[in-house]
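Re: weekly structure request thread

Next one in the queue (353 aa):
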Amino acid sequence: MRIAQIAPPWLTVPPARYGGTERVVSLLAEGLLARGHEVTLFASGGSSTGARLVSPLEVPPRPDELGNVWDETTHVLDAYRRAEEFDVVHDHTEMGPAVGALLGRVPVVHTLHQSWTPQTVRLFRRLADSVHLVAISHAQAVAGPDVPMAGVIHHGLDLSDFPLVPDKEDRLVWVGRASPDKGPVEAIEVAARAGLPLTMLIKVGEPDEQHYWEHVLSRRLTDTVDVVHNADHAVKVDALGRARGLLFPIDWDEPFGLVMIESLACGTPVVATRRGSVPEVVDDGRTGFLVDPDDRVGGSVAAVDRLATLSPADCRAAVEQRFSASRMVAAYDRLFERLVPAVRPGAPTTVRL
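Done, posted below.
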């Protein structure tokens, strides 16, 4: 098949630092290429891929311009103007599905990387008869009321990028955006009450992240908290591998949470709020512990005391069995194969993945 992968324009593919969606797009492009398909990747300049690279924007927008509708519209329009060159278009942007719905000729698949809002529910109800929507967790799929899904495909990892570290240090780690939804303040409190140092790998780039960091989060730091801003992949993997556990005290319905499987791949269990996709990713009592949303701090402190009972090898095995890149790529490949022969009129066919 001739497959187009349209990445968001904000970061390179793969990302140099923070960027879960871009890392997934990279794995898909390389994985589909390895399976014998002809892959074209639409991504910002500076991206690296074995596929054919097309860069509508030669330079990625500045971090404070993330979400700029003009940049993304330019990016997706340049991609969709070439849609007839492909058998299927796989779009990971926010603006793209609305453009793809107007094509009516080439199957368009859109992966829902974002959480639901009333606005996105309203939009995707209108697009679902023209665009094949893929959820990244079952929790996300059912949270979109009356929005038909083509399937659910969990994210995957290239495990060679995440070495297993069986011997852990007496420290905890937190990774995420500078946002209250991610629970960084709670992570600081959990570590303090557990009597353990905390490594925080924080993405600070967009204006709301800058504001939260400067006015809230930076004021909560103590001498036992080490902060790394916008860490690269090597720093992140090192921190995840050495930690006794990953704290994930989220205060929102996480659509997937890529850092959870990155941590598990390194053999590091996860202490996480039981919300959104978390119960699909963390096997309570085997690869981590689930905490009730109304007891995020106290429940997490109690769970930290039990982390030594869990096996790093079990954490790694869970990713190998359920969240590998090859499993993810194969699932999308099956979806594409079923869509390509189909004639476009009518609603998308739901497939079992």
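The domain at 2-156+324-339 is CATH 3.40.50.2000 (Rossmann fold). The chain has two domains: 2-156+324-339, 159-322.
Next request, please.
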